[in-house]
Amino acid sequence: KTHEKKNMKGVSATLIVLLAIVVVGVVSRELSKNFLWGTATAAYQIEGAYDRDGKGLNIWDVWTHEPGHIYNFENGDVADNSYDLWQVDLELIKSLGVTSHRFSIAWSRILPNGRLPVNQKAVDHYNKFIDGLIKANVTPLVTLYHWDLPVSLQWNIGGWVSKDIVSYYKTYADVIFSNFGDRVKHFITFNEPLEFCNQGYGTGGQAPGRCTDRTVCPFGDSATEPYLCAHHVLLSHAAAVNLYRTTYKHQNGSIGITLDCTYGYPLNSNSPVDREAWDRFLEFQLAWFADPIFFGDYPKTMRDRVGKRLPTFTAEEKEQLKGTWDFFGLNHYTSRFVTIPTTTKCEPAGWGCDSYTNGTVYDMQGRLIGPMAASNWLYVVPPGIRGMLNYVHARYGHPPIIVTENGVDVPGENSMTIDQATNDTFRVDYLKAYLGEVLKAVKEDNINVIGYHLWSLMDNFEWANGYEFRFGVHYVDYKSHDFKRYTNLSAKWYKEFIATQRRQAMLADNE
Length: 511
Prior knowledge:
Elements lengths: L1 H8 L1 H14 L11 E5 L2 H4 L12 H5 L22 H11 L3 E5 L2 H4 L9 H16 L3 E5 L7 H7 L7 H16 L5 E6 L1 H9 L23 H22 L7 E7 L2 E4 L5 H24 L4 H7 L8 H7 L5 E5 L3 E5 L11 H4 L3 E3 L22 H13 L5 E5 L12 H5 L2 H19 L5 E7 L18 E3 L8 E3 L1 H22 L1
Parallel strand pairs: 1-2, 1-11, 2-3, 3-4, 4-5, 5-7, 6-8, 7-10, 10-11
Antiparallel strand pairs: 8-9, 12-13
Helix pairs in contact: 2-16, 9-11, 10-11, 16-18, 18-19
């Protein structure tokens, strides 16, 4: 505990040192010629075919059909129809010149009821896509779980709040490794547990829609269930990684988890209160999951503030968790100024109150932190990704980092004509600025970033926002019978950017 606290307290000083290096212009690292330049998608958001070829229902299949949850009553029943159009999407990937593509496998497609037996048609489908990527010299980066829990496991055992889920997830992971691990060499156990635990079990804003507020959720307890969800996700992650490192060691692959985090800046950098709030802001998001994986237990700050509502790990579980990473998967989109709430009274009890922080988009002079995207939570703050990479680097001992998601939706994009929307200069500017900061983190701060995956390859179902917002570098025409994809300006820019970076990496490697 003492070690963790000292480690955390040293982050600010570390950042100052790193920024000092930038000022004097010292360049310490170049991008590897094996850097993973990629795109990203997720099964429920693009596949469709929700009830075909033996697929079982997942919690989103059910929740989206209940009234009041999703913008315009939309759902992912068809989505981008990528289950049928996977070859079209493969051509999009190839056209970009990327070296990697991140996608998720649908648990309820592989194991329709969340448990054995295996649905061979699903295995065949993913095999075709994986083989297509490899034939195109594109490295597959496979996410095992991207929010789409088989609904039978929610109904029968309670989903992620039940410890029984660990054995089911391990069985599912075993099926994935045994069927695809001969070709897939990069696995991600979970995508953004911060989001599906908090919103699924804390606010009720995502499936399965549980929370304390009975005007929003019929069931749930926001004070305890997000923490139970996170705890069992971590135990499931450990079970999968240890299985992979023992039974499937011969596959010679790598495995990690993807965590998301909004970066923060103390609202008043001279205020000890705001600096401590900044610490908690990042700990309650990122360290909640990363500390157990890297150090074996939750941050002391969380133990102190959450108390008995935060589950505990046994000594054996701590050992099983510690070191269960080969790389650090990071999703990052935006940043906030951080201070404390204006009142000490906070209801209902839960994660949002426990952190005792307030993220604001205005500085002390009332100036906006950056331009707002289409989504009201996303503000363009390019230096935030550099700060985030430095934070991970400093706190967790310089791990290899893969940026597994980063992207933006364009204001007013969904109401534009196709010609207007594909001329997405706002997205190009975002990518230029954020990727510029990633390069600074690598070349000037000596951060070991080994990959970057843009969100997203194409427009898709954006969870509770349905199809209201678009994040793709390819525009999807949902009104056309064939879900026609159009190439955006951002796709052309990204292709040129990757080609330039790869040429420079090859030249540097030959020097």
